[in-house]
């Protein structure tokens, strides 16, 4: 089973690239982030015509996540991250596909920091950790896939100096990500590509970042022990980022037996 995560940066703006990716790579499951749409702004018919069932959690103009499954309909488990009934941002959706629990995550950016947006980011990560712990207790294969907006280590950015004041690389953000790993989750990319290998998933549209390979790794697939036992491979489809009118993220994937 190939499970991919892909921040599309506006599903309607990037729909040709997304459909192209689905046709070429044919992943079994795709977790999408940053849909920037809801209701009739979600191109559900196009996705269905491409052979994918889907669970959508959209939001007008912002955020939005989805889980797509090739040739079948994902079984909905959770829409919205538990822990704060007043949080209306569409950043989490969880489904089951062929016995694997899969979550699509769009973690808050947190900039500018310090400030309320950074506080929201850290509070959201605390809620995610609590929910992740409950998923581990189920003792089933689980994949937490998405745009975490966290650069876990210095090796995961083109420039520590350029990013040192960014919310993505603050000690608190990194500590919260490590706390997830310490629960027993496996970072699929690092399991297959250990340091010091550089493997980026995002390249900004500004300052020729793509052309200079000035990227960083913020899209992650975390595996429960039962999923990690089935790990075959994980990588980034970097070439997708270089296509015309592409998202600033590249699809990142894991293969499980």
From TrEMBL:
The record marks 219 as: Important for catalytic activity. Probably binds two magnesium or manganese ions per subunit. InterPro entries: AP_endonuc_1, AP_endonuclease_F1_BS, Endo/exonu/phosph_ase_sf, Endo/exonuclease/phosphatase, ExoIII-like. GO terms for molecular function: DNA binding; double-stranded DNA 3'-5' DNA exonuclease activity; endonuclease activity; metal ion binding. The active site is at residues 106, 147, 249. Mg(2+) binds at residues 7, 34, 147, 149, 248-249. GO terms for biological process: DNA repair. Its EC number is 3.1.11.2. Its cofactor is Mg(2+); Mn(2+). SUPFAM superfamilies: DNase I-like. PANTHER family: EXODEOXYRIBONUCLEASE III (PTHR43250:SF1). This is Exodeoxyribonuclease III.
């Amino acid at each position: 089973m190939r499970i991919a995560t892909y921040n599309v940066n506006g599903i309607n703006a990037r729909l040709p690239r997304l459909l192209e990716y689905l046709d070429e790579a044919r992943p079994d499951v795709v977790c999408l982030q940053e849909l920037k749409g809801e209701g009739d702004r979600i191109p559900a018919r196009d996705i269905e015509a491409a052979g994918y069932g889907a669970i959508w959690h959209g939001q007008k103009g912002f955020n939005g996540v989805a889980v797509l499954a090739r040739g079948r309909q994902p079984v909905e488990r959770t829409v919205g991250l538990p822990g704060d009934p007043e949080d209306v941002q569409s950043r989490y959706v969880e489904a089951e596909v062929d016995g694997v629990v899969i979550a699509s995550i769009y973690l808050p950016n947190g900039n500018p920091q310090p400030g309320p947006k950074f506080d929201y980011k850290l509070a959201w990560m605390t809620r995610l950790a609590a929910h992740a712990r409950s998923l581990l207790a189920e003792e089933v294969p689980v994949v937490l896939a998405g745009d975490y907006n966290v650069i876990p280590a210095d090796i995961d950015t083109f420039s520590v100096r350029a990013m040192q004041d960014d919310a993505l690389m603050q000690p608190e953000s990194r500590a919260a990500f490590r706390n997830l790993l310490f629960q027993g989750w496996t970072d699929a990319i690092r399991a297959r590509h250990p340091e010091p290998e550089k493997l980026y998933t995002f390249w900004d549209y500004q300052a020729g970042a793509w052309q200079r390979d000035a990227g960083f790794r913020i899209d992650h697939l975390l595996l429960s022990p039962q999923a990690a036992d089935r790990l075959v491979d994980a990588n980034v489809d970097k070439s997708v980022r270089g296509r015309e009118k592409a998202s600033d993220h590249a699809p990142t994937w894991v293969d499980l037996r």
